[in-house]
Structures
1.
Amino acid sequence: MAEKLTDSHKYRLWRKKLEVNGLDIHNIEEIYSRRKGDGEVLFSLLMTDATTPEGDKIPPICFLKGEVVCVLICFIEKTTREKYLLLVKQRRICDGGYTYEHPAGMLDSESDPAAVAAREVYEETGVEVAKEELTRLLNHPCYPSTGTSDEAMYFFFYEVELPRAEIMAYHDQNMGVESDHERITTHIAPFVKGHRLITNTNGILLDYLYLKEVGDWELLKKL
């Protein structure tokens, strides 16, 4: 049975935030919703009629997506100490072309970002990592597109030392969930080269946050 939009976790979370911040909500119209196979709301396009505490109408369109996770996977070659990024390559609707991104995914109705992050890493790359092995960056989620979406992103990283042969074994593997129309290929690249392949702003930000967190100032200067 299809989940009603107003019953979904991400809708209730978003609406509560609007109300906490003082918006007077007059009407929310569901233009379109996509659901998972079990009927749970995946994302929605909404038209919102709401007034701010200052008496202004807030821009009405919202792409409801909810909370998401993004994980930087860094392989460190045991002998040379060179760092490699494990990215995922897939076509995106932004321009129809291939993008190179860090593994990511939506929380949907779950409440543990680290657990979701660990699962997404495995599903998209084949890397098995426990949620306790992930390091969270920033103490709050960030909004990549404040003007048109509620999407709130949690950032994590995971680094591990491996021989070069084991690192390269993760390259060019077909991954993703076919039922979700995911056509994902893994891609290994030296850190700087991988960074330059990334075109989404949250991925670029995550690289900088990671290098700052681990204190790799030399590599940071090369970006």
2.
Amino acid sequence: MKKLVLVAAIAATTFGAVSQVSAAESEHTLTANVGVFSDYRFRGISQTYNDPALQGGFDYTHSSGFYLGNWNSNVASDFIGDGGGAGLEMDFYGGYRATLPNTSIGYDLGVLHYYYPGVEDGAAFPDGADTTELYVGLSHGNLSGKISYSVTDYFGVKGDNGEDTDGTLYYQAAYSMPLSDVLTLSAGVGYTDVAKVSDANYTDYYIGAVYKFGGVDLGAKLIATSGDGVEGDLPTANSRGRIEKIADTTLVLSVSKAF
């Protein structure tokens, strides 16, 4: 009998410790994502000269609402900077998400740094292309909105008279509509307001769908732009000797998976 009591006490202590560890571990969440995309469009503009992109990242979230993350994608090696660079964009971000008291409205406050390893400063980008933005977002149900504010030059762009372009704003609104457990539709609009550049502002739009199949997400997104900044078909020359219309309306297809 004493042996049974001793075994029960040990088991209770052991399983109690395991439960405490599990509870502690549940405060921390680490996720990852990877995907292949037919094009990398950032705010409506192709970063890969309409070529495919491999993208992926990691996210850490604490139960308190704080989070950190990293996301990466290939870009055209001659897209930003005189020196070409590694043809890679690395994003680092962190912030805090929570819900406003006594409401169902979520908010998100954070900072995001875009880093282009190997890009050299030069005549076109005298201060480099790396960019840091602060952002604030709100969400309610399937509707979300976000404002981003650049505290550095906006991807190396200078103003009409050579001024710094910190203070550039990007406004974004999005809506998602789940139709079933496997199919979700979405739509969004964004507006870029480049500081101290008179004709660079433009609007981007998208409608998309994601279908879950065989453990992966199959995506399709129709993306378009308009406004003085791009006029729908911003042409850009690249090292392959051809002109790419990197702001034309396009359909981006993707296969991705979250872990």
3.
Amino acid sequence: MRVTMTSAASARPGRVNEDFAGAVPMAAVLIDGAGIPGAEAICRHGVAWYAGRLGGSLLSLLALAPDRSLSALLAEAIEQVTDDHRATCAVADPISPSATVAILRRSGGVIEHLVLGDAVLVLDKVAGPPLVVTDPREVIISRSYESALGAAAEGTDAYRRILRDLRAKRNRPGGFWVAKDDPRAAAEAITGSCPVSEVTGAVLLSNGASRIVDRFRLADWPEVMAVLAANGPAEIIRRVRQAEARHAEASDDATIAHCTDLGEV
């Protein structure tokens, strides 16, 4: 399996790239770190540290335990990272660092995948359109709060109360799930598999990169896969940055891991 990766940090001043991407011979991982203002007061490490630590733990486990399920490996990685800063940080606080996750693994003649949170994974199929794997729960729930947040003045007690209620939906039944401090969230991930013979390639994207389709509508997923095959992931991110500039929209960290030659050792 060949993996080509590109990551571009947000252009916002003072921000570091909070995405992570990495690969081992038979697997690729993408982590999109998520931070909430004020988190630095309860976690001295930060979101970029959490994303990098979680990604590193996952890659190690994927290399050393190829027979375990992706959900089990993610659960162990979450527990490892939580233990790394449990003694110094308020890991269970609702605003402590968290992340969304996408994993692709070739196991024998099978391609396995996992998505937790709003990362996107796309499998380019031999026959038919690409299979797009997403976890829409966070987006759906966040949108249900948009009108209430828009009606409340930012910084008021009412605004803060609405935000607290939204954040309380994280890693709760009926809410949405991300990698944070509770390894049980891994069991809520979207998972699946298919024969490697049915797949010509795959791509893992953070939500800052997937906006080429889901926010700006610059392309559909077959077009994205064609651009990746011809020009690589940097071209996708270039087009996203151009669209952000045209729309005067704040940029986000954008990361892509493009996987090809899936049947090769």
